[in-house]
Amino acid sequence: MNDPVNDSVNAELQELAESVFADARGAGTGFDAELWKTLDDTGLARLTLPGDAGGSEGTFSDAAVVLAAAGAHAARVPLVETDLLAGWLLHSAGIAVPAGPLTAVAGELEVAGTGVRGELRRVPWARAAAGVVVLTAGHVVLLGPERLTVTDGANLAEEPRDTAVVQGEVAPTAVAALPGGAAEEFRLRAAFGRAQLLAGAARGALAASVRYAGERVQFGRPIGRFQAVQQQLALAAAEVASASAAASAAAAAVTAGGFTAAASRFAVAAAKARTGEAAGAVARIAHQVHGAIGFTREHDLRLTTTRLWAWRDEDGSDAEWNAEIGAAALAAGPDGLWPMVTGSP
């Protein structure tokens, strides 16, 4: 049954998010400080965190709306890392959440009292973060930029994926015991956030392709009027619809039951697998429609397609999550399979 109040709130939130990200869209690389300030001012930067952690107390369905818009417009900000991962992990561990953009990573650190030493690889946005939160064996550690030696790195979309080396002392208030179940929830939260971004990026690539097909004239008419192009765009649209449905189902599941519920784990796995599969198909069709121009650095199509290629392998590939779905289906058995798939009792 539809909830008209919630539908109205989500529509207003989507309108706000689309406006914010569309205004900031650009072909630059690295952290977009101006966009981050806007997100901070509007309460979108820490949407799901509680008020005492500087958050807006939104739902995961709200987060899905914002992240999809961020993906569609190739936003250069660490939204998933700040809100869903670092902020949540710090608050859960009883560590004060600092202001500014944050990032989080599961990694191996040697922790002895307040002494910390180790190397962290492929840390998202480390060079721009006001704090790097590390989930390590038995501990949650907050590292300020002054404690880190950062070597720049990047994924295929030129988003920061840096190497950070730490050796020294941190404040006693920056280290806490790892809460029970936090490691598994961290993994699911990361996959959930990445799935929402993927669904948005697929939508952005499709929109760009439809627009280009209507503008590019060949043999006296727009290429969008040719049946072969229409068929390819229809296939891409089906992939986008499927990815969006899976991502929305995951958002509804975790909003209703949190990340610890079996139904939520299954929904997140399905969302990450399905959006990952859609990423390859949509990117391929988008470049086929655009032809050679779509592969040039000057064209904006690369902003979404390179993210589709990069994100599908981050936070677990579609093959990894499909294997988990298969294991869950076998464990459920003949009588439990249908309730698991449909989310019914």
Automatic annotation (TrEMBL):
<dbReference type="InterPro" id="IPR037069">
    <property type="entry name" value="AcylCoA_DH/ox_N_sf"/>
</dbReference>
<feature type="domain" description="Acyl-CoA dehydrogenase/oxidase C-terminal">
    <location>
        <begin position="195"/>
        <end position="304"/>
    </location>
</feature>
<keyword id="KW-0560">Oxidoreductase</keyword>
<dbReference type="InterPro" id="IPR009100">
    <property type="entry name" value="AcylCoA_DH/oxidase_NM_dom_sf"/>
</dbReference>
<dbReference type="InterPro" id="IPR009075">
    <property type="entry name" value="AcylCo_DH/oxidase_C"/>
</dbReference>
<dbReference type="InterPro" id="IPR013786">
    <property type="entry name" value="AcylCoA_DH/ox_N"/>
</dbReference>
<comment type="similarity">
    <text>Belongs to the acyl-CoA dehydrogenase family.</text>
</comment>
<keyword id="KW-0285">Flavoprotein</keyword>
<protein>
    <submittedName>
        <fullName>Acyl-CoA dehydrogenase</fullName>
    </submittedName>
</protein>
<keyword id="KW-0274">FAD</keyword>
<dbReference type="Pfam" id="PF02771">
    <property type="entry name" value="Acyl-CoA_dh_N"/>
</dbReference>
<feature type="domain" description="Acyl-CoA dehydrogenase/oxidase N-terminal">
    <location>
        <begin position="7"/>
        <end position="93"/>
    </location>
</feature>
<dbReference type="InterPro" id="IPR036250">
    <property type="entry name" value="AcylCo_DH-like_C"/>
</dbReference>
<dbReference type="Pfam" id="PF00441">
    <property type="entry name" value="Acyl-CoA_dh_1"/>
</dbReference>
